[in-house]
Write a structure and sequence with these properties.
The structure holds three protein chains of three kinds. By secondary structure, chain A is of the alpha/beta class. Chain A has two domains: 215 residues, P-loop containing nucleotide triphosphate hydrolases (Rossmann fold, 3-Layer(aba) Sandwich), CATH 3.40.50.300; 69 residues, no CATH class. In chain A, 33% of the residues lie in helices and 23% in strands. Chain A has an eight-stranded mixed β-sheet with strand order 6-7-8-3-9-10-12-11, sandwiched between helices. In chain A, strands 2-1-4-5 form a four-stranded antiparallel β-sheet, with helices on one face. Chain B has 13 helices and no strands. The radius of gyration of chain B is 24 Å and the shape is globular. Classes of the chains: A alpha/beta, B mainly alpha, C mainly alpha.
């Protein structure tokens, strides 16, 4: 895969007005994706991954201040007027949300909701849009799509609803798909099915996908590249395999240790990361992980550490990689 | 018909019966005898007794109640104690004023309230929102009959555009009638609209926070489209609930407003009948008003099922 | 019939820290609608209190010779058709207004809260019966029930106040039951039940104190509604009876003189509007201050 990137984010910053005052929710996030490429964003809630996604969609509240650049092909999306943005959303760039139970309008039939982006962005007639909606719902594996197209959201299960929102997001064959925790709200048994469906569709249609999750396992199995976010910054990024074999950032290592594992000896305690996620409204001056880091030094608190290359396109935002990575393979 | 519908109708009938029972007990069983009241305290006992028999008031309470219910079923409400004419006729000739008045003011209320509520919600926390919301705060504080008097002062006394009262009737076409009901309808509507506008605003704001609004935006719909296609239908249910409840206040308001404008409507009939001690007219008028309120709220309940697809299934 | 918004809003209103914070007054004095509302309400209360000890002229003495005077140094707002001083009438009128409000809200609060607490504590058919009854009383607005009472008992302040009070009961029942149900669902009530406390003790010790702030807010708003209803009834001649001055009655008198003395119809209405506006703003302010979670919802 080569050629110019489809979507390119450079030094993205987002300032939000929260009830506790202005907060720098995202700082210095940069990445580029070509057609067919997949990128994972992983981190705890409040780390800025969803804000990044909403910034790409142009759906942050009006009061948010966005800096840096987001380019989709040759179009600059930061500061793009809403009218022009509306032509892209649901058409070239789509999003699947976390909560399938509330993401659908309870008052409209699912057929109407799936057909809506088609009617909005393509010149099809209502009858054509309906046929297309049935085909889409079939493709995402909704049983009896043709019969149930006039049913309402409350008549479906959570997994089925998530299939419907996927059909909705894919209706106009978007170039970029953002999936924000698409399986978090679902039963464990359904999660795998939905992720497989998304992965299959991404491959089939050659989309670029950004998958957001707090679950390292989901990231490991579904994306080629990944970024770990903490306190609004990317603390580690690289090929998924590379990151999982050689974790450079103490936070990534902590996240990995904290995940529950099958086959662990009975009575093994899960290792948690000490401390709590910092409030975005009052982030420390230096490394945002400093307060919870086991190998923190005085100089970590002075300024935000720069990204250190620790391998081919594998970057870590830590000045102590010599120590953290010498500790050996924590995952093994 | 669905179980849902059947159950609502049963509730409606039960409520109407309960209302009739309360009205009957309050007006006909509480102190004093209607005949005594009509003739005054110093009427001779014989005369009072004669009138009691004549009016059928000597029969047992239960019999009189059942006779009233039966009368309502066949459309015979009895004769006015004072005028001696059928009560149904008295009421009917007043309704040609009161029903158009209620409809007009409900239309004005809904138009003003939806416009103000949607506008303020769409401009949440901006200057227009704060301004209109302050106006509604004042609107809620205004007694409607005082607002009516102020309208008379402005349009009749100062500008001399509309008459200060009276009803032109429908004989000369529809416009003179509507013209004479315009100020009364506005004065009834403005206060109600202020309340309904606030309800609309908060209902719309609440829906705007829902996830599916973001989904709709993610599909490429503009803010305005999302508001009209996705938000309003979800916000209309609490608005309709309050509209139904306001209808009771609206009818009560007509009693006051008809007095301000000297309009010969149902409210004025009730009022005069109290002054005349014409209890049979009062009883039937109050029953009619209560029934209208109950039926309007029943209609609102049934409308929910048409608007919200979740309700039908939940009750089947 | 469906629940009014107040009930659901109140049910949603049970915040963990529903009791006023220590800095209540500090926050209150910074709250714009609370300050404005409290100011206007105190103005009306002050007028009523003042009228007990002093009025510029007697509000009861008729002096037809000096009728319909324009405003002057002696009569600041002029005189009415019977020569009574408008300022004095307004001051004494405030007294009737407040009295009717207090009694009517007292009736509504006492019966409504008791029934609401019973409905919340004793589920089943008792709750169903209480709620059906209060549903149904909504069909009889204050003016209508006052008219029914006036028809049998004759017009007067007692009749109208009782009617307004009865009309207020269902609102208090709904608000009380809604918020009490929310308290009953909380863990500390569960703990109290586990400790063997009866429903009466739980109601008194846990439920009532926790819904108090909601009831205060609701009572303020109902007070405003009572004033509006009283004014309408007095205007119709069904409420406060002459010679006792009342704002509604003054409007009725003034209406016949609209062409001669239009301002006579302005003052009493403005007085009613100020009182109602003040109480509504006060209620809104109290809601924000006593219940931070609900404040955010608005």
């Amino acid at each position: 895969m080569s050629g110019a990137p489809l979507i390119e984010v450079k030094d993205l910053g987002v300032r939000l007005n929260t009830s506790r005052g202005p907060a720098q929710a995202v700082r210095g996030v940069s990445f580029a994706l070509r057609r067919g490429e997949t990128l994972g964003l992983v981190g705890e809630s409040g780390c800025g991954k969803s804000v990044t996604a909403l910034a790409l969609m142009g759906l942050l509240p009006e009061s948010a201040v966005i800096s840096g650049s987001i380019r989709l092909d040759d179009t600059e999306l930061v500061e793009l007027p809403d009218k022009a943005y509306c032509k892209l959303r649901g058409n070239r760039i789509s999003m699947i949300f976390q909560e399938p139970m509330t993401a659908l309008n309870p008052m409209h039939t699912i057929g109407h909701q799936v057909a809506e982006p088609l009617l909005r962005h393509t010149g099809v007639s209502a009858a054509e849009a309906r046929q297309e909606a049935i085909a889409l719902l079939d493709r995402v594996g909704l049983p009896d799509a043709a019969k149930r197209i006039d049913a309402y959201p409350h008549q479906f299960s959570g997994g089925q609803r998530q299939r419907i929102t996927i059909a909705m997001a894919l209706a106009c064959q978007p170039d970029v798909l953002i999936a924000d925790e698409p399986t978090t709200a679902l039963d464990v048994t359904i999660q795998g099915q939905i992720l497989d469906l998304i992965a299959g569709l991404v491959e089939e249609r050659g989309m670029a996908m950004i998958l957001i999750s707090h679950d390292l396992g989901v990231i490991a199995e579904n994306v080629a590249r990944m970024m770990v976010m903490y306190g609004g910054t990317v603390v580690e990024s690289g090929e998924t395999n590379a990151v999982f074999t050689r974790m450079g950032h103490p936070y990534t290592q902590g996240l990995f240790r904290a995940r529950p594992r099958l086959g662990a000896r009975k009575g093994t305690r899960l290792k948690t990361i000490a401390g709590t996620v910092p409030e975005l409204a009052d982030l420390p001056a230096g490394c945002s992980f400093a307060d919870r880091c086991a190998i923190v030094e005085q100089r970590c608190r002075v300024a935000l550490p720069a990204v250190v290359d620790v391998g081919a396109s594998h970057g870590v935002r830590c000045i102590r990689t010599d120590v953290s990575m010498a500790a050996g393979d924590v995952g093994a | 018909m669905s179980v849902f519908f059947l159950r609502r109708i049963l509730t409606l009938v039960a409520t109407l019966f309960a209302a009739s029972l309360i009205i009957f007990l309050v007006l006909d069983a509480l102190p004093g005898n209607a005949a005594q009241m009509l003739m005054g305290a110093d009427a001779s006992p014989d005369a009072v007794h004669a009138l009691t028999v004549k009016l059928g008031l000597d029969q047992p309470l239960a019999v009189r109640y059942l006779l009233w219910i039966k009368g309502m079923a066949v459309g015979d409400l009895g004769n006015s104690y004072v005028y001696g004419t059928p009560v149904s006729g008295l009421i009917a000739e007043r309704l040609v004023l009161t029903i158009p008045l209620a409809i007009m003011s409900m239309l004005i209320t809904v138009t003003l309230a939806l416009a103000a509520g949607i506008y303020t919600a769409a401009n949440h926390n901006k200057l227009g929102d704060v301004g209109v919301m302050s106006l509604t705060q004042i609107g809620i504080a205004l007694p409607n009959f005082w607002f009516a008097i102020l309208l008379i002062l402005l349009f009749s006394v100062k500008l001399q555009l509309l008459s200060a009262g009276g009803f032109a009737g429908w004989d000369d076409g529809i416009w003179p009638g509507i013209r004479s009901l315009l100020l009364p309808a506005i004065s009834l509507a403005v206060v109600q609209a202020a309340i309904l506008a606030r309800v609309t605003r908060s209902a719309v704001l609440e829906v705007l926070r829902e996830d599916f609004v973001r989904t709709a935006r993610a599909k490429g719909l503009g803010k305005r489209e999302v508001l009209w296609r996705h938000v309003l239908r979800n916000a209309i249910i609490p608005v309709m609930t309050v509209m139904g409840l306001q209808f009771a206040n609206l009818l009560a308001g007509t009693i006051v407003i008809e007095n301000v404008f000297y309009l010969p409507g149902l409210g004025r009939l009730i009022f005069q009948s109290i002054a005349n001690r014409d209890l049979i007219v009062v009883r039937n008028c109050v029953m009619l008003l209560a029934a209208m309120v109950v039926i309007v709220n029943f209609v609102v309940d049934v409308l929910y099922a048409f608007i919200d697809p979740r309700i039908k299934v939940a009750n089947l | 019939m469906s629940a009014p918004l107040t009930a659901s809003a109140a049910a949603a209103a049970i915040a963990p820290g529903a009791r006023p914070a220590t800095g209540f007054w500090r926050r209150a004095l910074r709250h714009r609608s609370f300050v404005l509302g409290a100011g206007l309400s105190l103005l009306v209360l002050g007028a009523a209190l003042l009228s007990l000890v002093w009025t510029p002229w007697s509000a009861y003495d008729i002096d037809v010779a000096s009728k319909l005077h324009p405003p002057s140094a002696a009569h600041w707002l002029g005189t009415d058709v019977l020569g009574r001083d408008i300022v004095s009438l307004l001051l004494v009128g405030a007294r009737s207004t407040i009295m009717v409000g207090v009694i009517a809200v007292g009736i509504g609060l006492t019966f409504g809260v008791c029934l609401g607490l019973i409905a919340a504590a004793r589920k089943g058919w008792i709750e169903e019966l209480i709620m059906r009854l209060s549903d149904f009383t909504f069909a009889f607005p204050a003016v209508l029930s006052a008219i029914m009472l006036a028809a049998v008992a004759g017009p007067g302040m007692l009749t109208s106040t009782t009617a307004i009070g009865i009309f207020q009961i269902p609102t208090f029942v709904r608000v009380t039951r809604g918020s009490a149900n929310a308290i009953w669902a909380r863990e500390f009530v569960l703990a109290a039940r586990a400790a063997g406390k009866g429903s009466f003790r739980i109601t008194i010790e846990h439920v009532l104190p926790n819904i108090l702030s909601i009831l205060i807010v609701q009572a303020t708003i109902q007070f405003a509604l009572a004033i509006l209803a009283e004014a309408a009834l007095s205007y119709l001649g069904l409420g406060t009876q002459p010679p006792q001055p009342s704002w509604g009655r003054m409007l009725n008198d003034a209406q016949t003189l609209l062409f001669q003395s239009p301002m006579l119809a302005v003052y009493p209405g403005a007085a009613i509007a100020i009182a109602v506006l003040g109480l509504n703003l006060l209620g809104d302010g109290l809601r924000d201050l006593l219940d931070p979670r609900l404040a955010r919802e608005r």
